[in-house]
Amino acid sequence: MTSTDPLIIGRFQVQYLLGRxxxxxxxxxxxxxxxxxxxxxxxxxxxxxxxxxxxxQQEWDxxxxxxxxxxxxxxxxxxxxxxxxxxxxxxLRGVNLAVLLxxxxxxxxxxxxxxxxxxxxxxxxxxxxxxxxxxxxxxxxDFEGHLTLLDFHAGTQESTAPGPLSGSPGYVxxxxxxxxxxSPRSDLFSFAVTAFQMWTGSxxxxxxxxxxxxxxxxxxEPSFPSDMSISMRMVFQSALEKNPNARTQDxxxxxxxxxxxxxxxxxxxxxxxxxxAGKHAGIRGLAPFLARHVQVKGPQAEASPVAxxxxxxxxxxxxxxxxxxxxLSLLLVVVLQVWRWxxxxxxVAATPPAAPVVTAAPAIPPPPSSAAPAPRIISVRTEPSGxxxxxxxxxxxxxxxxxxxxxxxxxxxVRLEGFEERKLDLDGEQAIPEPIQLEPSPGKKAVPxxxxxxxxxxxxxxxxxxxxxxxxxxx
Length: 475
What we know:
Elements: E1 8-9, E2 12-20, E3 24-31, E4 36-43, H1 49-63, E5 74-80, E6 84-90, E7 95-96, H2 97-100, H3 107-126, E8 129-130, E9 139-141, E10 147-149, E11 156-157, H4 174-177, H5 184-200, H6 210-219, H7 230-239, H8 251-261, H9 266-277, H10 286-293, H11 298-302, H12 317-341, H13 368-371, E12 377-380, E13 382-383, E14 388-391, E15 394-398, E16 401-405, E17 411-415, E18 422-425, E19 436-437, H14 465-473
Parallel strand pairs: 13-19
Antiparallel strand pairs: 1-2, 2-3, 3-4, 4-6, 5-6, 7-9, 8-11, 9-10, 12-16, 14-15, 14-17, 17-18
């Protein structure tokens, strides 16, 4: 952090610079009231504060209409006498999709990420909001494969009135270049360009400088790889139509075409179709999908220090030493408290531990990673398998699931046609049965469970998303 960087903005304690865009600076900060890390965005020096304030207010107003786990939340906004308007958003750990696309992803991982992006974008469509700048740079993928759509700073409420041009060269819809207002179909065009780039590793209208890419989007037809199937070409051709009225009408139709044309094994196709049809339920659970089909090493990756520290800031030896000292101090306090309550042979009261024991270690503000509680993860298997799983009424997929993140859920509901429902309390001390035995319903014929495909043997060239993320973060 340079001498010109802010230390305190509003009530937020700025820690260091995360990055910058052509118009903004983005800092990692800490909210002392909520005791959690956040991102704080300010305009670059010299920017018009009134224009910045209008932009931040618009993004704040749009965020009030959006509530989806795949969309970054805007938490607060304000103004500082020296640094001008600022915007506070939730802090997310992960890797930008644009960095992830420097290497090709497997088809099933690509489609699973696109399903997540489609659900997030559809939530905006349902709220009457146009994002205005869909591209890989505005998508974040965390270390378990969860995808989050970022930056509605170019977003608008759906309107028929022309507005200022929004979007990025290569991704912006051609009708916006003619002055037409942004719409869900212009967002669908940008989504289709992003999907094409993820699937092929290239841009549909070619690369070049901004002017060349804008001209190509308006004038050229998409260029397809020679090995792309005819059915996949037809899906992209329809989604990339220059006339918005002739374009694919909605995201569900586009994603259905992509999944059907991918020629994946039937179990993978069925799983992706089920996730697409599931609206918001279970859409953030990419880790179990990858663990079954891409051989991601879940427990080892979870223990990696890369996944628990902010990107771009290596673990400091001094911080590690302070953490060890604090841990030892707390352990000593616990031991002394236990000793205090042990039975004595004499009636003389033991001297309570001196106060300095508690404060032996210097006061250390907890790092950003310590603010978030450790995820609650359980393994769920049923006999028979294939049962629907619900956390507090929210569908999270089917059994078996080796690593099911339950968050703050209180109850697990297991349901399978032809069998009695099982409700399991997640707050008690009783462990989840392994497996959960389902009893046939009286008078009903049990429906045989769907046979689960045998797990693949890992290959040396098998794609490992965790290893890939750690590699990209280290660049």
